[in-house]
Design brief:
With 200 residues, chain A is mainly alpha-helical. Chain A has helices at 21-29, 33-51, 58-75, 85-101, 115-121, 131-148, 151-162, 167-174, 178-196. Chain B has helices at 3-16, 21-36, 57-69, 104-123, 125-128; strands at 43-48, 51-56, 74-83, 89-99, 134-143. Classes of the chains: A mainly alpha (200), B alpha+beta (150).
């Protein structure tokens, strides 16, 4: 009988370290609820950050995330790992969020908010000298500026600048070409730079 | 970098580190509701002393996964069930990930034995009859990351 080597080269896993996404997806796909809970805990905050900046109503955000994770739980047994788990989850979320956009202009190329409304909502840079308040104001300003962007530009900017997706992964999530991703991102960056100029 | 870009960069950095309070408020509910959702799956016939019963193939798969994951140095990566006439389970194909350096034939035997025990527990005498269910073990991957086979 052929004997395979029995020695181990791999170092032991650090205590308490969680499995990688692909292992969690595999287990959850076979019905492991604990693995699915880790997936929700790991990716939920980023998905919330993404969806809550695409949709205005908190109830719509919650519904979208609920539907996203339901889709994930039901679909993980068919997940083949062609894309990463993170890309797959964001794709599910983008599709679910898009159903709410049907109330908005269909092209997705027009701003979601009025320019005057947004600039009026930008907090003044010197409104509060305390750093914590300044940071909160800065975040509020960015959120307000993001609302000015058309949904597709906003999505692409968040995926690239906040979630650090590659252009190829963004293209997968958004179902567009990488060339389109570059264009959308460029326009989003320009608009945000100009809008944030108001924050002084 | 201009002042405008600097402000945007600062804001971007803050958002990267930010966890919305809204997520904290709804995360437990979202998980709970997702796990309660019905996952449709085909019925599989089992038999005990009082007669026949049906069990969802999803449940059979989940129990098989538990049994296989309990085998040291192995983790299930895909499990498929095939049923024949009258929803009787005829074939189970188990794809596993094996830890690098493990004796694969021995590992496959252990996985096969664990699967047989699990099927007997779930399906009763329909699983224990000679040649009732063909169980195939396929080693689909070998990993050097111990977390993959925990």
């Amino acid at each position: 009988m052929v004997r395979w080597p029995t020695h181990q080269h791999a170092p032991p896993a650090p205590a308490g370290e969680q499995p990688e996404d692909h292992a969690l997806a595999r287990r959850a796909g076979l019905g492991d609820r604990d693995a699915f809970a880790v997936i929700v805990t790991r990716h939920g905050p980023a998905l919330y950050r993404f969806v809550s900046r695409l949709l205005d109503e908190p109830a719509d955000v919650e519904d979208t995330l609920q539907e996203t994770f339901l889709d994930a739980w039901r679909g993980l047994n068919g997940f083949r790992g062609d894309a990463s788990l993170q890309t797959w989850l964001f794709t599910l979320a983008r599709r679910r969020a898009q159903t709410h956009f049907k109330r908005l202009p269909a092209s997705g190329s027009r701003p979601h908010a009025d320019v005057t409304d947004v600039t009026d909502r930008l907090p003044a840079r010197n409104a509060d000298p305390a750093d914590l308040h300044r940071q909160q104001d800065l975040l509020t300003a960015l959120d307000a500026a993001l609302r000015m962007l058309p949904p597709r530009q906003r999505s692409v900017w968040i995926l690239r600048e906040i979630e650090d997706f590659t252009y190829a992964d963004i293209a997968t999530v958004m179902a567009v070409s990488t060339t389109a991703v570059r264009g959308l991102l460029e326009r989003a960056r320009s608009t945000l730079t100009i809008t944030m100029k108001e924050w002084r | 970098m201009t002042d405008n870009q600097d402000v945007l960069a600062q804001a971007t950095q803050l958002l990267r580190q930010h966890t919305d309070a809204g997520w904290t408020a709804i995360s437990a509910d979202i998980l709970h509701r997702a796990l309660r959702a019905f996952r449709p799956s085909a019925p599989v016939r089992g038999r005990h002393e009082l007669g026949d019963f049906f069990i969802a193939s999803d449940v059979v798969v989940a129990r098989l996964r538990q049994a296989i994951d309990a085998v040291p140095n192995a983790a299930a990566s895909r499990i498929t069930c095939t049923t024949g006439q009258h929803q009787q389970l005829t074939t189970v194909t188990i794809q596993i990930v094996a830890a690098y350096g493990t004796h694969l034939i021995t590992l496959a035997q252990h996985v096969h034995a664990a699967a047989t025990r699990s099927l007997a527990n779930e399906l009763g005498e329909l699983a224990t009859a000679h040649d009732a269910i063909h169980t195939h073990v396929h080693i689909g991957d070998v990993t050097d990351d111990p977390r993959d086979v925990l």
